[in-house]
Design goal:
The complex is a heterodimer of chains A (130) and B (137). Chain A is α+β, with helices and mostly antiparallel strands and 130 residues long. Chain A contains four helices and five strands. The mean pLDDT of chain B is 90. The chains are: A alpha+beta (130), B alpha+beta (137). Chains A and B meet through helix 1, helix 3, helix 4 and strand 2 of A and helix 1, strand 2, helix 2 and strand 3 of B.
């Protein structure tokens, strides 16, 4: 592979049903995601999505391009910048940032349709033998 | 550390091992249904972020997070594909602890190892922020 692959964006609606399903699937009981009364006592005032659920869109974008290579040699480093207050449509993007020694690097981001940035960071994956 | 740790009492350098576990098809299906990722691309292999998320879930089972805890940052290295049914061990280490303006920040390093050959298959580092109201140090 001589050129850095493009990674297609992933857009998904994150609503309370999805967040509740994720709480069960990931065994994450934090009430800030599912308990309206509890969330009302927090700075956000309403339940927020799991950061890992937002990050899952980045991983999905990478796996759609790289398949099992992503599972065998991927890396992520992200910070969450703002909470995803559901329901919200989120788009994950990965912009090429370099291709060296067989490792493709990307600047990754998740943002809402209104342009609010929820997450930024980097992703990389080995796509060739060094 | 062998006793059940409390989040607010964790100190830098604390280490503990979680019980061995494996991912089965229903774990992966529930994760993919929740996230919306198509399942077809994962045939017998655990999606790597599912492995990370479920390992963090196992950690939270051992060390419940305070209700207002927030995930501030995350790093993962996926070192080898994990297959369904593969027995895994989880080592957790408290890499960093700091407290500022009523907020406790912990960096937790998680390592998943194959129970069969001891090979590390995933490394993660989670930064978690929580109210320090129950802090003891």
């Amino acid at each position: 592979m001589k050129t850095q692959p493009e990674v297609a964006p992933v857009t998904r609606l994150i609503d309370q049903d999805r967040v509740s399903a994720y709480s069960a699937a990931a065994n994450d009981p934090n009430p800030i995601h599912t308990d309206t009364d509890f969330a009302a006592t927090t700075d956000f005032g309403r339940p927020i999505a799991h950061g890992m659920l937002v990050l899952a869109l980045v991983s999905e974008a990478m796996s759609a391009t790289f398949g099992e290579r992503w599972a065998a040699s991927g890396a992520l480093k992200v910070r969450w910048r703002a909470p995803a207050i559901q329901p919200v449509e989120v788009t994950a993007t990965a912009e090429p940032r370099g291709f060296e020694d067989g490792v493709a690097s990307y600047a990754v981001q998740c943002a809402t349709g209104d342009g609010d940035v929820l997450l930024t960071g980097t992703a990389s994956v080995r796509v060739d033998e060094a | 550390m062998t006793a059940e740790p409390d989040f607010h009492d964790l100190a830098r350098g604390d280490e503990f091992v979680l019980p061995s576990f494996s991912f089965d098809a229903s774990d992966v299906r529930a994760y993919l249904d929740a996230t919306g990722e198509p399942a077809e691309r994962w045939d017998g292999v655990v999606p790597p972020l599912a492995a990370g998320a479920l390992a963090l879930g196992a950690l939270m089972e051992r060390v419940p997070l305070p209700g207002g805890a927030l995930h501030a940052g995350q790093e993962f290295e996926f070192l080898r594909a994990i297959t369904l049914g593969e027995s895994l061990e989880t080592l957790v280490r408290v890499a960093q602890r700091s407290e500022r303006r009523g907020t406790l920040l912990l960096a937790l390093e998680v390592e998943l190892r194959s129970a069969g050959d001891g090979v590390t298959v995933l490394r993660g580092r989670s930064t978690v922020a929580a109210p320090a109201t129950e802090a003891t140090s």
